[in-house]
Amino acid sequence: MKQKNIEKQVYKPLSSAETGAFFSYICVVPYILTYFLIYVAIASGMDTKGQAYIYFSNVANELLYLVGAVAFCFYLKKKPSFVGVAKFGWQYALVAALLGISVLCSFSWLNEAFLKFLGLFGYTSPEITVPDLSGAGLIGAIVAMALLPAVCEETVFRGVLFSGMKRAKPVFAVLVSGALFALFHKNPAQTPYQFICGCLFALLTLRSGSVFPAMIAHFVQNAAVLVFTACGVESIANGWVIAGAMLVLIALTVLLILNRCEWKKSERKEEAAEWQNGKFWLSAALGIAFCAFVWIYTFVSYLG
Fold this sequence. Notes:
The chain has eleven helices and no strands. By secondary structure, it is mostly helical. It has one domain. The longest helix is centred in the middle third of the chain and has 30 residues, at 90-119. It is globular.
């Protein structure tokens, strides 16, 4: 009996305060460490325009997020299922892949429209640097800029962060997860698009009970962008936008019909009360303020 009580105490879910503290931690610490490593690399003579630097900056950034999440879980003595490492039905993999490509096609116009809106204030989006996409270089780019972000960022957001947030009301968990995901990227032009992606990935995790479908959707989306870029596709034609929108509707319909859900209503009702005391927002305030500052700094820096 004593052993069971100890195990229950060790593996209890994140509190609202711990969830917010994790967000602050993962926003600030890896960001600072990434720039420190980049500074060391440049000081060591690495060419900032070379392929090695492009790969190093992207891989270091993503791995630090993953290491940070693992370190946090290790500190709190959490088991793998805590971050959504669980089996899932094959149908969720299909829905995830469908969502990944269809959201890209149907909401690509949103980036362009929001960028035009920001342009009214004189903002010009900085060019995103990608590795060489010719030949075998595309494979390396997909690993560094599609696979790694999918695994690392989904472990952070739909794994650790969402594992605590899901104890609140589902609508709150999905919407706030999406909002924090968008703010976390600190990219003014992609803010609305990242919010939609974050919400859909959270819904996918909620319905499947596993973080892996969200990883699949994230990977497919990023990989598609790289493949389109390698093929010289700069914008999505209207026909593909319409087709993508239809596929999104189909995927969401199937996702909502699939009736597996990780939480029981009774558990949600009991645990949601904790999220009404404001401790999450208080402990997440540092991360929110830090990301907001970088977002505003980026916006101001690229004003024409």
